[in-house]
Amino acid sequence: MSKPTSAELTTLSIAEAGSLMTRGEITSTALTEAFLARIEAVDHKIASYITVTAERARIAARQADMELSRGLNRGPLHGIPIALKDIYETEGVLTTGHSALRADYVPAVDAETVRRLKAGGAVILGKLATHEFANGAMTPDQPFPSARNPWNTEHQPGGSSSGSGAAVAAALCMGAMGSDTGGSIRNPAGFCGTAGIKPTYGLVSRCGIYPLSFSFDTAGPLAWTVEDNALMLEVLAGYDPNDQASAKTAKVDYGAATHRSIKGMRIALARTWYESGLTADMAKGMDEAVRVLRDQGAIVEEVVFPDIWDYHICGRVVITVEAHAIHRQEVIETPEKFGYTTRRRFQLGAFLTAEQYLSALRFRRKLQVDTRAAMRGYDLVLAPNQWGSPEKFEEPQAIFHFFGKASLSMPFNVTGQPAMTVCCGFGSDGFPLAFQLAGRPFDEASVFAAGAAYERATPWRLRRPTL
Predict the structure, then answer these.
(1) Which residue in 164, 184, 213, 446 is the catalytic one?
(2) SS3 track for 226-262
(3) Which of 270, 299, 235, 241 is nearest to 374 (CA)?
(4) Model-level pTM?
(5) Catalytic residue list contains 160
(6) Which of 210, 321, 389, 402 could form an S-S bond across to 431 if both were Cys, CB 3.0 to 4.6 Å?
(7) Active site residue 184
(8) Domains of the chain
(9) In this protein, which residues make up the domain named Amidase (predicted)?
(10) H helices then E strands: how many in the chain?
């Protein structure tokens, strides 16, 4: 085959690039240089990176090439250029949390996930923009520019893994690490048209990742395809004794799961969550997704789940109290160092009582039990990922996340189930549409199988934003 151009290299999938490197047809160095050149050329338009670690990436790429040439293959991410949401502590590299409070912070050790990625041979290109401390809103008074949506830079990319969604969509890295407390992997995945998975709570270590909410925080990847997410999760998943929520689970070949047939798979459609409120484009996208999954042999049936507002309010109360507990001292002592929106959201937690917090925790348990009962006899849940198109860049409301529309992603943070965002077309305004597939706890394999089957049957992975 002819040598791929730089543009062709940056739009390969992780699976394709890994196969080409294993066969010696491309090098990690060429791949890495193509991404570094593209970051240099276009990232000023979307500000997805806070820090680019070019020299470190070049050294890691040369090491990967040397190892691969000698027959040492560390796995599906060996030589693959990826990037990290800037709440992942990275040895010797500025880790800001997109906040003035950490503007000069350089950790001495890697987060456990970063250690695993490096051990798997991944090439880390740099650190990506986020909402301040992963809190879910951008304001102009923060020390770094806000990441922008590569499909239309006047609009938000979703958050809080904003840079992760934008960078993957704009072909500025092959995969990115995000975190999901109330939808922060799935929101940017949906609005930027990538795939992204919130794994089961406890499957991926959070050690060395800035916390937002102890009982909801989940770490996971975003990538261009479902299969690429599966390959990243293979490297990331596994027990970590330093994370109190970490679960001991058997190793799963997630990559193989993406090639499984979904004939006979039973999927519960949560239509009551979105009967009114979706844009016409999103409603059409959902109906079409149901048709495609049925064409692949899946059985899709409407099932009634608890009210979407119950999950939303329960999640918001727990997250707000826990975020306040984490940031309380700095909010009291140096409130001016936070962005306005972050400060107001963290302060809200001071006005909720212990009784209200405990009531929300008990209510969460009820929602988990009721969701499990509704799923009885089904493998997956299907729901929209978003109500419609992303918002424009305007001053966000500090407490809109309480009183606006209920979050479509929050149910699976409350239950802790794995949930994957899959692009299902484009609206009349050119923005991506997306749905979620959620599985039983620790059954990411079924989620990947259905998501990959949908992607194979549709043309959406061929369309990229132009910058």
Answers:
(1) 184
(2) HHHHHHHHHHHECCCCCCCCCCCCCCCCHHHHCCCCC
(3) 270
(4) 0.97
(5) yes
(6) 389
(7) yes
(8) 6-462 (3.90.1300.10)
(9) 31-447
(10) 16, 11
